Amino acid sequence: MKYVKNLLLPVFVIITIGFFSSPVSGEICNRVVALVNDDIITLYELNQRINRLTGFKPVSLKMQDQNNFIQTRRKILDLLIDEKLTKDKIQELGITVTPKEVDNAIEMVKKNNSLTHEDLVAALKKQGIDYESYRRNLKTELERMRLINFEVKSNIIIREEEIIAYYNAHKNKFNTEEQVRLAIIFLKQNLPSDQEKKPLIDKAKEIINRINNGEDFGELAKKISQGPGALDGGDLGFFKISRLDSQLRKVVSNLSEGEISDPIIMPSGIQIVKVVEKQKKKAKLDADSRDAIYRILYKEEVNRRYSSWIKELKEKSYTKIIF
Prior knowledge:
Chitinase A, domain 3; Triger factor/SurA peptide-binding fold; alpha+beta; 2 domains; 3-stranded antiparallel beta sheet; 12 helices; 4-stranded antiparallel beta sheet
């Protein structure tokens, strides 16, 4: 019976072309561009989708770059063919989406975008879409998602060895940034000229000598420092080196763990910095990295299976492009 229907399609095509032809000018305003099983795709349908996806009318696209227009038109036509095939498969499998499920999906859209119902309707209107058309389109998308879950996503398993292999091949993506733990002694004084700062610089050098001669940096910070963290021995905790200001980043980069800086002159006083600890860049397969890799591999597998599935579906179906 299916073959009989396919044979009858050309007759319908002739009728369709005649219907959309202008009796005066003979100019065809619409025609069939593809046959998909017992369904058709019209030029009007194709042009509407080109306009929606590119933001340009087909005539404008063609005038800009004819080769690019032809490639774009073919990709969008393939997309429409895939949609027709999935629609047939949805009907074959009896997949349905209830009005309540559409309502729930719309509520989720509104919630995720902080929209009221009026906001959503207004946003749709700006895109030239009325609310009922939006509901129909959303229902179709939910049906397709359910089909893909059934036909493509079922039984996908990402093995631990796949995650580790991906991680080993892309370690640079999972490097933790170099960090440094700093402590400071800050001598506060607003002095405009270097000459006026000299007594403060001399004091800072004296403190450095005391530390080099064995006095504890932390204890001196508690007694002398006028800056943050003084009560904790000047300890400021960890910083990502890339986040430090350029002057401090340069000083810290040249210091090893346990070393202290020369006096650093600042507009508001003098700083003595100690590098308490350095954490170098290292690749780390932690829970967040593992989850990220899983999502990447899962998406790749879904795309691979979908491409294979849609190709097989096309091979089993009747499709013909008419240009």
